Backbone:
C-alpha cells in the first residue's frame, strides 16, 4: 500500500517536472519566434526606409534633370548669340569710325548724339559688358552641367568615376551656401587632392554622400566665427597598403576621402543618431 502511494506521488512529481520542462521548452520556442519576428520586422523597416529613400532620390533626380534642361536651352541661346552680338557691334563701330574719319563736317544732330551717348565710353565699355555676359553664361552652363551629373540619382550602374569631379560638381551646386551672409564670413574650402585613379562605384549614390557630408559641414559652421573652413583630403591607397584576406594580395586600389570642418562638432546624443534613417 505504501509503495503504491509512493509510486503514485513519484509519478505525479515526474509528470509535474515533465510538464514544467515542456512549458519551458514551449516558452523558449515562443521567445525564439518572437526574436525572429522582431528581426524580420526590423529588416522590413530598414528595407522600407531604403525603398522610400530610393524613390525620393529618383523623383529628385528627375526633377533636377528637368530643371537643368529648361535652364540649359535659353542659356545656350544667350551663349551662342554673344559672339554674334560682339561681331555685330564691332561692325557697327567700324562703320561709325569710318564715317568719323571721312566726314569732316558732321551735322549738329550727329555731334549732339555723340556727346549725349558718350561714344568713347560705349566703345570701351561694350567689350567689358560682352565679356561679363560671356562669363555669366559660361558659369550658368557649368552649374547646369553639374546639376545634370548630380541628377543621375536613380542610376544603379557601377561605373568608373572621377572622384574629384564629383566633389567639385557638388561644391558648385552648394556655392550659394558657401558665400558670406550677413555677419557670417565666406566659407573657405581647402582641397588637398591626391592623384587618384578612376574609381569603380555607384556614382549617383556617392554624389548623394558628398552632398550630405558637405551640407552637414556647412550647417556645423553656421554659428562659427571667422575663419570658417572646410577641408577636403583625398589620398590613394595602393594595393600593397590594403589589408589582405586568405593570404592573398588585394588587387583593387582604393581611395580615402576625408571631409572636415572647423565647427564645434556634434553632441553625444546627436552622434548616436547619425545613422538613423532620415535623421
Residues:
Amino acid at each position: 500500500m505504501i509503495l503504491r502511494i509512493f509510486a503514485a506521488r513519484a509519478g505525479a512529481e515526474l509528470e509535474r517536472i515533465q510538464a514544467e520542462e515542456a512549458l519551458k521548452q514551449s516558452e523558449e520556442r515562443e521567445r525564439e519566434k518572437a526574436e525572429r519576428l522582431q528581426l524580420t520586422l526590423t529588416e522590413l523597416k530598414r528595407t522600407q526606409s531604403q525603398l522610400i529613400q530610393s524613390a525620393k532620390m529618383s523623383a529628385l533626380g528627375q526633377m533636377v534633370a528637368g530643371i537643368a534642361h529648361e535652364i540649359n536651352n535659353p542659356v545656350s541661346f544667350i551663349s551662342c548669340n554673344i559672339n554674334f552680338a560682339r561681331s555685330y557691334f564691332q561692325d557697327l563701330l567700324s562703320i561709325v569710325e569710318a564715317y568719323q574719319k571721312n566726314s569732316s563736317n558732321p551735322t549738329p544732330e550727329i555731334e549732339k548724339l555723340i556727346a549725349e551717348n558718350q561714344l568713347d565710353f560705349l566703345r570701351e565699355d561694350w567689350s567689358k559688358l560682352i565679356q561679363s555676359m560671356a562669363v555669366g553664361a559660361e558659369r550658368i552652363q557649368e552649374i547646369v552641367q553639374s546639376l545634370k551629373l548630380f541628377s543621375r540619382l536613380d542610376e544603379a550602374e557601377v561605373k568608373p568615376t572621377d572622384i574629384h569631379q564629383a566633389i567639385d560638381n557638388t561644391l558648385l551646386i552648394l556655392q550659394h551656401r558657401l558665400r558670406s551672409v550677413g555677419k557670417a564670413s565666406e566659407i573657405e574650402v581647402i582641397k588637398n587632392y591626391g592623384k587618384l585613379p578612376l574609381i569603380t562605384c555607384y556614382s549617383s549614390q556617392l554624389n548623394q554622400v558628398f552632398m550630405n557630408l558637405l551640407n552637414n559641414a556647412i550647417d556645423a559652421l553656421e554659428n562659427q566665427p571667422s575663419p570658417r573652413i572646410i577641408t577636403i583630403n583625398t589620398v590613394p591607397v595602393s594595393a600593397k597598403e590594403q589589408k589582405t584576406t586568405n593570404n592573398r594580395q588585394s588587387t583593387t586600389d582604393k581611395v580615402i576621402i576625408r571631409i572636415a570642418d572647423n565647427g564645434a562638432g556634434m553632441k553625444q546624443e546627436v552622434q548616436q543618431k547619425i545613422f538613423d534613417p532620415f535623421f
